[in-house]
Amino acid sequence: MPGKQYIPQKLTTLLVYGRPPLVFGGMLCAIAVMWTRSPVLYILGVVFLFVSMTFDLVDGWFAARFHPHPVMANLADRIMDKVVYSIIFPLVAVGTMWRIHIVTPDPNRAELLHAILVMILTVTVLVRDNFANFMRGFAIRNDQDPEDSEFTRLRTIVSAPVGALLYAYAFYVPEGPETRIYSSISWFGNLPLQGLFFIEIIFLVINLGSIALYCRKYGSLCLDELCLGNERLRRRILAFFPNALTVMNAMMGLLAVFFAYQGRIREAYLFLVGAAMFDKLDGALARKLGLTEPLPAENEQARTIRQGGILDDIADLVRFCNSPAWIFYIVLSAFSDPIVEKIPIALIAWGYTAFGLVRLIYFTLDKNPIPGFFKGMPTPAAAMLSVAPLIIFAQAVNEGSPWTQFWGIFCCGVMIFTAILMNLYPIHYLHLGRFMSRHPWFTRLTLLLFVSVFTPYFGHVAVLYMFLYTLSPLITWRIDPQVAARETRTKTAGVH
């Protein structure tokens, strides 16, 4: 029996240890392609990567069937994975930059965004691998079995195909030989950016999910060991996560501006909606991690709250005050109309930002909040109300509608109106999250807003929805603040 398994075990060893030489060969071919733009070398490099991908997919089956040394096989497979990913993903990032400068010397904004996404994906993959190795080593030192979750195994399965696919796209050389193999490979090199964006975002989510699972499983024990019982140090480390989430939410506002520059107002609005939906997550995460509980040292507690509050206010200023004003100026300033051109668009945009800043300052200094309600319109709702008519206006401009002038003036009026509503503090607005929990029918009504995204009437539905919210003070007086207070476990954070 041992003699019969000798060759399969050797084959398993070849499959495990044969991947790095293949990937290294692909790297040499990629360097040569960037130097010579040879289609033959491009084909050879892609073949190397796809063979390596095949080895990665089948070596587990051979290992499970022919039972090599389990510890050494597992260790070797992880080391080989680390070596392969450390080569292929930085190589792909370089190749993507080479393509937009050499193959497509006049890239559009979508291609530039794709190159940036590939760089972010590369950093995420490398960080995930090093973080996973660290957490596995920590688990072994604490006599725990570092078993892989289904999510982690999914990441391992898809990494090699994604790397090979991005390699075929990044180092694509047009005008190659008219052969069947080149025609098949060039199909991967000409994939539409929409498909690549989808694949890369899914792969990015998988990597981030794998990091989150390691944090959930070993994070608490790891912090206990690293901090040596120092609670202040523990909280400073944990504060990184809600603060990072706050910064990421601010980036959603900047992405909304980026899409507005491309004339895609609908997508920009969806980013603002996403920022509003995720607005409370940083505060919720902080409460989940126990960062809102007081420390024995009151001075340290006060300092921590001040730092987190300032960071959250800055993020809100970017995503809910500056971004809507910026989008408003981008859309309206590009429209040539004798009446609209007389409107001080820049002044309105600056005024909206200033009024939003005043509200944030008031919210921070307010010592008597009303539980379950907002004094004045909250900045997330104001951002969605002010940008919603811009969707209709942009659509009217593209269609050459005779109502274009009307919608331009209407957008200016809504911008001014919303800026004023944010600072009418005697008026109390609903907390939509708690109102939905009390009235499930309103939740179903809200789903219509998202369904309308796929229709030409998305802007109209969004405007109607947000104007209905402006009428919410008509029913707030019927809600007992004491009832709202019982529904609020802690003071709401992250909505201003």
Outline the fold blueprint.
Elements: H1 2-17, H2 19-36, H3 39-66, H4 70-103, H5 109-141, H6 150-170, H7 180-189, H8 193-227, H9 231-238, H10 240-261, H11 265-277, H12 281-288, H13 298-333, H14 345-365, E1 373-375, H15 379-399, H16 404-421, E2 428-430, H17 432-438, H18 440-451, H19 458-470, H20 473-476, H21 481-487
Antiparallel strand pairs: 1-2
Subunit organisation of the chains: single chain
Structural class: mainly alpha
Summarize the helix and strand pattern as letters. Answer: HHHHHHHHHHHHHHEHHEHHHHH
For the secondary structure, the number of strands is 2
Strand content: under 5%
Which parts are unreliable, with pLDDT below 50 for 5 consecutive residues or more? 69-73, 298-306, 488-495
Q: State the helical fraction.
A: over 70%
**Number of structurally distinct domains:** 2
The number of helical runs is 21
Q: Indicate the radius of gyration in whole angstroms.
A: 27 Å
Which shape, going by the Cα principal axes? globular
Arithmetic mean pLDDT: 78
Instruction: Report how far apart the termini are.
Output: 72 Å
The biggest beta sheet is recorded as: 2 strands, antiparallel
Q: Strands across the major sheet, in which order?
A: 1-2
